[in-house]
User: Which sequence fits this backbone?
């Protein structure tokens, strides 16, 4: 069962909404928790034990940290001024051990389940290269859906308790719901404790606005999924699985369409997740902010999968770049190289770590690691050349604020993103490199001119329908860029216009959606990461 | 406050720091600038900025940043 299934939309969700509201306020959060475990149990069966284990671990570690913090504070009350620093350091060390233990267990489970096959396969290849007659049996573990997402949430909770940003939760039910809330469990968004935990546990009644606006958001997500994602899938499967039979033009088309598909699938799932949460009075963080209007790749990643980028920024980038050693590097660098290039070394160390983790997080294959390091390289080069580019612009009197300049920056960013996504989707790094090479050396627009592009499961009508959806998305994105909240604007219109829009959305899904016999719906793409 | 604005102008001089309240949201200060800014503030004002304080609310305007510095100085 996924969020776009009929069973979820017409059976599971309505039952949960009704039950949630039938129960008194103090029991509603328990209904949500039970529903979340039922949902997780349906999709992951006995693997539910892993999320229960993660909940138990962070609950225990949180209380352990809290106990250490209370003990420290009590000792500090009676301590002399000169002793305070020593006491603080002693307890920081103790707390740090708890955090490391917690991270080792949570990440250890993730590594064993997700990466052990990849690690063993590569070790065997290494033994082979070294002519060692030794092989490790490659293990294959079943991985619970959403483990990459809830593990990050669990780590963020413990780190935030350690840093004193939040207090350890004594209520295991609240913590369990924070980790397992069913709309976010498959693909996120990766929420922070202070963003959702309290609100989820409040158990506020479903409001008319929450129900209707949440419903609109769900419909919007369903439109993306049913009209685009499954429609374009046959073409993408064909080209990526048989790229040897296709020229560079077809590969470029598949690369563009895959990026379009991924955006529609992931942002569509986020629309549904956020819409469902709204029905229970919970506002989840947004995961997309018109990413294709970004002027640099760096900016793109502050607009695409925002909660993952924010996690890496807050728990890897700043903690590394602001360590004592990195701060010393920055101070020394600034004296010699000035304000711009001075912090570059410390920042680059942190940036490399972020993108390596980003690549590895997405999957256990070399193409994902390449995907991460590709972005690191692009962002690093972008940073290095920024001052000379500014200097050239000044000398040539080019206005970098002009529309045409920003437009070219956006196009450049989109092309760089497309290339990254080609490696991301490719069936391994070798395939990715071969596809990229073919795109350069064997590029031709023949498949489009002689219309053979239409022979692989996506015909002219499909392209027109997807084109219309694309136009709608671009218009909505443009309005959002101008600060217009489309949903609020619709809500302010009269009832006839409002319901006309809703019906139009519903009808477009019924008429133009891909479902039924002969259609194999694509599972949520990010669920595999 | 004047010293802080001076530091900010050294890092990125194309912004009106007296009025701008979207330094992070509008990408006037990127992650590289933040590292530089934190190092400079720590040296200049003798404070330690913990990573939990590096949030848009504290860095979106010169005023918010100044409030953070004052608070950290008071906390010792």
Assistant:
């Amino acid at each position: 069962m996924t969020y776009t299934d009929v069973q979820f939309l017409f059976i599971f969700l309505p039952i949960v909404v009704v039950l949630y509201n039938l129960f008194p306020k103090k029991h509603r959060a328990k209904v949500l928790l039970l529903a979340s475990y039922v949902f997780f149990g349906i999709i992951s069966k006995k693997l539910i034990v892993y999320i229960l284990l993660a909940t138990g671990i962070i609950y225990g570690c949180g209380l352990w940290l809290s106990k250490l913090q209370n003990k420290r504070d009590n000792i500090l009350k009676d301590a002399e001024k000169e002793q305070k620093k020593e006491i603080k350091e002693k307890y920081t060390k103790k707390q740090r051990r708890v955090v490391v233990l917690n991270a080792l267990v949570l990440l250890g489970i993730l590594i064993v389940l997700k990466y052990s096959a990849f690690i063993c396969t590569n070790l065997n290849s290494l033994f082979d290269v070294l002519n060692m007659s030794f092989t490790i049996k490659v293990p294959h573990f079943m991985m619970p859906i959403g483990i990459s997402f809830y593990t990050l949430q669990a780590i963020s909770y413990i780190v935030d308790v350690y840093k004193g940003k939040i207090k350890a939760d004594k209520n295991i039910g609240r913590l369990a719901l924070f980790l397992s809330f069913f709309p976010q469990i498959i693909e996120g968004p990766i929420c922070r404790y202070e963003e959702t935990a309290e609100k989820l546990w409040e158990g506020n009644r479903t409001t008319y606005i929450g129900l209707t606006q949440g419903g609109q958001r769900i419909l919007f997500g369903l439109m993306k999924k049913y009209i685009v994602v499954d429609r374009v899938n046959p073409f993408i499967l064909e080209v990526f699985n048989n790229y040897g039979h296709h020229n560079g033009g077809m590969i470029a088309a598949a690369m563009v369409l895959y990026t379009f598909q991924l955006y529609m699938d992931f942002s569509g799932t986020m629309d549904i997740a956020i819409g469902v949460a709204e029905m229970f009075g919970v506002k989840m963080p947004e995961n997309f902010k018109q990413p294709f209007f970004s002027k640099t790749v760096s900016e793109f990643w502050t607009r695409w999968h925002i909660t993952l980028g924010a996690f890496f920024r807050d728990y890897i980038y700043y903690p590394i770049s602001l360590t004592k050693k990195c701060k010393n590097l920055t101070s020394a660098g600034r004296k010699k190289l000035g304000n711009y290039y001075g912090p570059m070394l410390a920042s680059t160390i942190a940036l490399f770590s972020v993108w390596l983790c980003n690549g590895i997080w997405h999957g256990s294959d070399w193409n994902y690691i390449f995907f991460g390091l590709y972005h690191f390289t692009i962002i690093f080069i972008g940073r290095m050349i920024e001052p000379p580019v500014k200097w050239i612009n000044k000398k040539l009197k080019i206005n970098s604020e002009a529309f045409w300049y920003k437009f070219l920056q956006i196009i450049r960013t989109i092309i760089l993103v497309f290339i990254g996504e080609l490696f991301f989707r490719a069936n391994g790094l070798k395939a990715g490199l071969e596809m990229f090479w073919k795109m350069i050396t064997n590029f031709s627009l023949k498949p489009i001119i002689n219309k053979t592009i239409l022979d692989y499961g996506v015909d002219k009508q499909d392209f027109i329908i997807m084109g219309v959806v694309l136009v709608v998305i671009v218009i909505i994105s443009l309005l959002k860029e101008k600060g217009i909240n489309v949903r609020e604007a619709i809500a302010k219109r009269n009832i006839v216009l409002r319901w006309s829009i809703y019906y139009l959305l519903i009808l477009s899904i019924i008429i133009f959606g891909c479902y039924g016999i002969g259609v194999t719906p694509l599972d949520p793409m990010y669920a595999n990461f | 406050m004047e010293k802080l604005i001076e530091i900010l102008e050294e890092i990125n001089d194309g912004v009106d720091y007296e009025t701008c309240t979207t330094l992070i949201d509008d990408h006037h200060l990127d992650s590289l600038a933040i590292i530089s800014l934190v190092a400079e503030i720590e040296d200049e004002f003798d404070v330690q900025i913990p990573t939990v304080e590096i949030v848009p609310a504290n860095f979106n305007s010169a005023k918010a940043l100044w409030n953070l510095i004052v608070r950290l100085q008071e906390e010792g």
Observations:
- The interface with chain A takes residues 10-11, 27, 30-32, 34-36, 38-40, 42-43, 49-52, 54 of chain B (CB under 8 Å).
- DSSP finds four helices and no strands in chain B.
